[in-house]
Design brief:
The complex is a heterodimer of chains A (424) and B (548).
Chain A (H helix, E strand, L loop, with lengths): L6 H6 L24 H6 L6 H12 L7 H8 L6 H6 L7 H14 L8 H10 L20 E2 L7 E4 L1 H6 L4 H13 L4 E3 L9 H5 L3 H18 L3 E4 L2 H13 L7 E4 H10 L11 E5 L18 E5 L3 E5 L13 H9 L3 E3 L18 H4 L1 H17 L4 E4 L2 H14 L4 E4 H8 L1
Helix pairs in contact in A: 3-6, 13-14, 16-17
Chain B lengths: L4 H11 L4 E2 L2 H8 L4 H7 L9 E3 L4 H13 L3 E5 L14 E5 L6 E5 L4 E4 L5 H9 L3 E2 L11 H6 L8 H4 L6 E7 L5 E4 L19 H5 L10 E8 L1 E2 L23 E7 L4 H14 L4 E3 L10 H9 L8 H6 L1 H10 L3 E7 L3 H18 L2 E2 L1 H4 L1 H13 L12 E10 L1 H19 L12 E5 L7 E9 L4 H21 L7 H5 L3 H10 L1 H17 L12 H6 L2
Parallel strand pairs in B: 2-4, 3-4
Antiparallel strand pairs in B: 1-2, 5-6, 6-10, 7-11, 8-9, 8-10, 12-14, 12-15, 13-14, 16-18, 17-18
The chains are: A alpha/beta (424), B alpha+beta (548).
Chain lengths: 424, 548
């Protein structure tokens, strides 16, 4: 659907500001009640989901034209989707989809954010979002005794993603993931230097056609490889495979699982056993793309119609995605199964979790904003009394580590895989 | 009109460049305000654009801003959380103050049961902090996302817990108020240095002047801090919320009970029960909530809320079901929700027995659907946290309110009947959603000692200009009905304030009492605002402000 298709949503926005807060039933304090980093940082109403609906309406009606300020309003947002969850507690509107289409329209109209241009150029040239050489993509797996799925068949394809492929600090996590799978006897393969970006982040930045290109490429590769399951440790990639690919009509032909889902099954089946205790109090950060943005895509094509004069209904019935069906329990079940670990929850969790700050092209375009958003989450984690914050996404981990390092804070940041490895 | 460069620079110097903007796209974010008043007064979905939006952080900054505006002949329009057309400018030449950077709870005095807050503290935040201390605050019907300061100082101020937590305006204790001349006035006991505990002194009490009954809607100075009353909360320090979005629910503690009471269509019995419940001094929350979603559609809509597999798209089919029809029939007309929250086992025994007796005497019945534990737990969150009242916008895209008379139950019953009658006529024309006609919302305040109110809600589609014109036609008919019946204007005054003189003439022709009210408000405003710096447009209009 194009931006114009959401005009009724823009006009029906009640301007209630629910999109700025966690669902009101879930407000637990003064301090941690806000849910949208963009309005939290920028204050003017236009930086909220409701404000963006109005900005889009103004643009469509010709009340405003493109300007640097409009582009900032469009792009200074992590696209974490918490606004969408809070809106849909009471409304049948699509603020998140409208915001995606607003970005797509800006790109289509040639209104590009200068900071994004080198990232997208790099993607088009080198097939990754980190402006690195394609030839170096497989370095993370050097020395690993693992199948190359482009040459050998394997039941499980492990997709590392751009961040795990190029961020050397995080290589132990992606390498550890493969080793864990192998240790559990999983027939796993990787694509190494032939792996390509999922295209999800580019899609969220408004470059929608890039996603289709990479989706088709990965689908072709998996078909040849005969894999049955795609496992990834990257929440961004998971969301792209699970939600965005079906949205653009591409079927990978495999079951898509996040590593936390897959490991949780292996733990439950007794194929991974813990032998060490980790006496530590931790809290868990739900990555947006593993949580609310992993709510599986539900295709709907139909029309809106009115009954009882003005009651808005859809034909056929529209099933609404509200962020309820993300991957919330598997990571928690894994953490709770590790001996010695004590999991304490933050106030903003699951579908209304605060974003780490890295998504939607913000870390690339507004790095300071990304860091401040992370620091807000770190404050929340510390308020629980936890010694460490655990997450399940390399973008979250990178951004938290970038934020915490200069602050000298003692809170430790872990990927869930690191704790699993330590406990074995 | 373009803002004078020197004026902009003077304002920018106060708050810094990052906290002021005159970018059109930013300004439109403040011009868009959902309300039938916007559509009628300004012919679309946008109010006039402010000349600039400014985000002050302190009272000092606000005082300086107001003085600059006096100097440059600009007007100011403040808002806190900013919901409704009255939060937006009414004309050109207005500086919008967005007070969201003033977001602190300054004090919670547990012993004296009050809290001191800044404008951008929302009710849900204050409630969460108060509950940790065994206290609770009044939350207006617009819900938990609204500024607690604005709902006590600036706009009406009734919520369904009014039976035990008062009325917005009466919960206002001390206030800090920047006058339209830029003076910071301290009202109530605060004005004599005695703290925030009392709105009427020792010290200057201007509660009646600064807000009256409806509230000045940001048209009469700027409130920067207020103290609000808190009330005992016998529930847990944090309500345990369970379930999956959007259907959050909370198990009821032993000492809390929720009831949905119906009266077989008898409004007289409804009024009798209201009086008796007030006399018995029972109840924590009481009012018409569910049926406000429409006597025809409420049951179906609430069934969709309690079942994740159902949605608005299922409402037409649900309405065809014999079971739903029966449940709807039982809910039609006079009904209310009542929450009992007891402070001890004997209190619980007293309240439940008193209710049983009242129901016996008035023929009241407990509605079976809402006695279901699942529905009860869902309603419990809605009644205590007021977290989903925005649902009233959902079915058709927008809602409006009419009548809104503040009186005793016998009069309010007449209001409900008149509202239904007028609305049915307009539903037949097709522009309003057919909710069955009867959809009053409201309840008692302060154990019924100062009466209560009912307002007739209606639903329409802002995406369809024919629908918003139909809404307006209904509204004017409703306002004229109020005037003709000789009822106090209540909320029927609000839409008329948005109109040009010509458009509102038919309403004012029969509403002498309203005109007198506006004249008095104009006199008061002129005394405090000789330069008409506070945008009067959504309060009393420029004409009354100028004394013409």
């Amino acid at each position: 659907m194009a931006l114009e298709d959401y005009k009724a949503d823009m006009e029906r926005c009640s301007r209630c500001s629910y999109c700025k807060w966690v669902p009101l039933a879930q407000v637990k304090s003064l301090r941690f009640a806000q849910v949208c980093p963009s309005i939290w940082e920028n204050n003017f109403h236009s930086y909220s989901a409701g404000g963006r609906l109005t900005a889009a309406l103004s643009l469509l009606e010709g009340r405003v034209d493109y300007s640097d300020k409009l582009l900032e309003i469009i792009y200074k947002c992590q696209m974490g989707g918490a606004c969408d969850v809070s809106c849909k507690v009471a409304r049948h509107l699509e603020p998140y989809q409208s915001m995606l289409e607003l970005r797509a329209k800006a790109v289509e109209d040639g209104q590009l954010l200068p900071q994004h241009i080198p990232v997208i150029d790099g993607l088009r040239k080198e097939d990754n979002m980190l402006q690195k050489l394609k030839a170096d993509r497989g370095k993370w797996a050097e020395g690993l005794d693992v199948k190359n799925i482009t040459k050998e068949k394997a039941e499980v394809y492990y997709h590392a993603g751009c961040r795990y492929s190029f961020d050397e600090d995080l290589w132990p996590i992606s390498r550890g993931a493969v080793n864990l799978l192998k240790r559990a006897g999983v027939d796993v393969g990787i694509a190494g230097k032939d792996e390509v970006c999922c295209g999800g982040r580019a899609y969220e930045m408004g470059y929608q056609s890039e996603l289709t290109k990479y989706a088709e490429s990965t689908a072709d590769m998996l078909k040849i490889a005969g894999a049955k399951i795609l496992v990834t440790s990257c929440a961004d990639c998971y969301s792209a495979f699970k939600v965005l690919y079906p949205k653009v009509g591409i079927n990978l032909g495999v079951k898509v699982m996040h590593i936390t889902e897959y490991l949780n099954e292996l733990i439950k089946d007794g194929r991974i056993r813990f032998s060490k205790s980790l006496p530590m109090t931790i809290t868990y950060h739900d990555p947006c793309h593993l949580g609310r943005l992993a709510d599986p895509w539900i295709a709907w094509e139909g029309v809106e119609k009115k009954v009882l004069n003005q009651l808005i209904v859809h034909e056929p019935k529209k099933v609404w995605r509200r962020g309820a069906n993300g991957v919330y329990e598997p990571p928690r079940e894994i953490l709770n199964s590790i001996p010695g670990l004590k999991l304490v929850e933050m106030q903003r969790i699951k579908e209304y979790a605060w974003c780490c700050g890295a998504g939607g092209g913000v870390k690339e375009a507004y790095p300071d904003f990304a860091i401040r958003t992370a620091l807000e989450r770190i404050e929340e984690a510390k308020s629980t009394g936890a010694e460490a914050m655990v997450t399940a996404c390399p973008w979250c981990e990178r951004n938290f580590k970038d934020a915490i390092k200069p602050s000298g804070d003692g809170l430790k940041i872990y990927d869930i895989l690191e704790l699993v490895q330590q406990a074995i | 009109m373009a803002l004078d460069k020197k004026a902009y620079e003077a304002l920018e110097e106060i708050v810094g460049p990052e906290n002021i903007s005159e970018e059109p796209v930013i300004l439109d974010g403040y011009a868009f305000q959902q309300h039938h008043g916007t559509e009628q007064a300004y012919g679309g979905l946008f109010c006039p654009r402010p000349e600039a939006v400014i985000l002050p952080e302190t009272t000092d900054e606000i005082q300086t801003i107001v003085r600059v505006c006096n100097r440059y002949k600009l007007k100011v329009k403040p808002h806190s959380t900013g919901w409704g057309f009255w939060a937006a400018p009414s004309s050109e030449g207005i500086i919008q103050l967005d007070l969201r950077r003033m977001n602190r709870i300054l004090e919670i005095d547990e012993e004296n049961m009050y809290a001191v807050v800044e404008p951008y503290v929302i009710s849900s935040q204050l409630q969460a902090e108060a509950m940790k201390r065994g206290l609770n605050c009044h939350i207006i019907g617009a819900g938990g996302s609204c500024s607690i300061l604005a709902s006590t100082t600036s706009m009406v101020g009734y919520g369904l817990s009014g039976i035990s937590t008062g009325f917005g305006g009466r919960n206002l204790l001390g206030a800090e108020w920047v006058s339209p001349l830029g003076e910071a006035l301290k009202l109530g006991s605060l004005g004599s240095g005695a703290g925030w505990f009392c709105g009427d002194g020792p010290g200057p009490s201007l509660r009646g002047i600064l807000r009256g009954f409806i509230g000045a809607a940001g048209g009469f100075g700027i409130f920067t801090k207020v103290a609000v009353k808190l009330y005992p909360w016998p529930g847990p320090p944090e309500m345990p919320i369970q379930g999956v979005t959007p259907n959050y629910y909370s198990p009821l503690p032993e000492n809390i009970r929720d009831y949905t009471v119906t009266f077989s269509g008898s409004w007289d019995s409804f009024a009798d029960a209201w009086y008796k419940i007030s006399e018995a001094e029972i109840g924590y929350v009481m009012g018409k909530q569910i049926s406000a979603f429409g006597s025809k559609t409420a049951v179906a809509q609430f069934l969709t809320l309690s079942n994740p597999d159902l949605d608005n798209d299922d409402i037409p089919e649900l309405l065809e079901s014999p079971d739903v029809r029966e449940l709807t029939e039982e809910l039609t007309g006079p009904t209310f929700q009542l929450t009992i929250a007891a402070h001890s086992s004997s209190d619980l025994e007293y309240q439940t027995k008193a209710l049983e007796k009242i129901l016996e005497e008035t023929g009241g019945k407990i509605h079976p659907l809402f006695a279901d534990p699942g529905m009860e737990e869902l309603m419990h969150v809605m009644m205590i946290k007021v977290d989903r009242n925005n649902l009233i916008f959902d079915a058709a895209g927008r809602f409006g309110t009419s009548f809104g008379i503040f009186s005793i139950p016998d009069t309010l019953v007449g209001v409900a009947k008149a509202g239904e009658e007028v609305k049915r006529r307009h539903i037949e024309k097709g522009g309003l959603m057919d909710d069955g006609g009867e959809s009053t919302w409201g309840g008692p305040y302060e154990r019924g000692r100062i009466g209560g109110h009912l307002e007739e809600l209606f639903q329409y589609d802002p995406h369809d200009p024919k629908s918003w014109q139909a809404a307006w036609n209904y509204l004017m008919d409703a306002a004229l009905t109020v005037a003709t019946k000789g009822w106090p204007p209540g909320l029927s005054l609000l839409p008329a304030l948005a109109l040009s003189e010509e458009k509102r003439a038919p309403f004012f022709a029969v509403a002498g009492e309203v005109i007198d009210l506006l004249r008095w408000q104009g006199r008061i405003k002129r005394a405090f605002d000789p330069n008409i710096v506070s945008d009067p447009g959504h309060y009393i209009t420029v004409k009354e402000a100028e004394g013409k």
